[in-house]
């Protein structure tokens, strides 16, 4: 049974099924004189229908790997852009999560040559969340560096009597060198939890940020969904019966 519930009219061309000589293929735009097919609701000639059936993208391991690589690259780019904007302007705009979700979804579907599916959607959602949440890490590092620099300037400033506030009274204290791997792991975990950490200081802002992030993840989810091509036919293109 032919599915006409989701027609896809294209290029503003009206379709008059059953009128010989008036029907055109919606893909190659050539007139259809004999039998025709329906590809996702759009009229197609036998040649285009056969070509589409032969060129259907298949979900392979290599396609998934390419999609992941493209998605990781897009997530890193999105994180950098998100963090750079926040550092340069001092403003953290949650709506950037929408752009990150679109960027990740677009990159993954490009890498897979149009192949989508559940595993692509899960990866796209995880990459979008990771990119947006981990953008807080470079922002934290930036402001921590500024705070440390400000403290050093205050300590180096001379007191009212002209003596160095650092003084010779301060004795150097032995500092244990932190484990780099442990520190990096802690920082990554804090970054991934950053969308929820804001609830302690700004519950309303954190809630709005989470809603926007969820919408951005939905963008990535929908863009990487499976897009099956359904071709029905052949159907006879016969003259209309007189009324």
Account of the 3D structure:
The chain has 7 helices and 3 strands. The radius of gyration is 29 Å and the shape is elongated. The protein has 243 residues and is mostly helical. The two termini are 26 Å apart. The N terminus is likely disordered. The protein has a 3-stranded antiparallel sheet, with helices on one face.
The percent of residues in helical segments reads: 40-55%
Form type:
elongated
Question: How are helices and strands ordered from N to C?
Answer: EEHHHHHHHE
End-to-end gap? 26 Å
Count of helix runs: 7
Spatial extent as radius of gyration: 29 Å
Estimated share of beta-strand residues: under 5%
Which spans of ≥5 residues are poorly predicted at pLDDT below 50? 1-21
Secondary structure tally: strands: 3
Strand order of the largest sheet: 2-1-3
* Largest β-sheet summary: 3 strands, antiparallel
Q: Structural class, judged by helices and strands?
A: mainly alpha
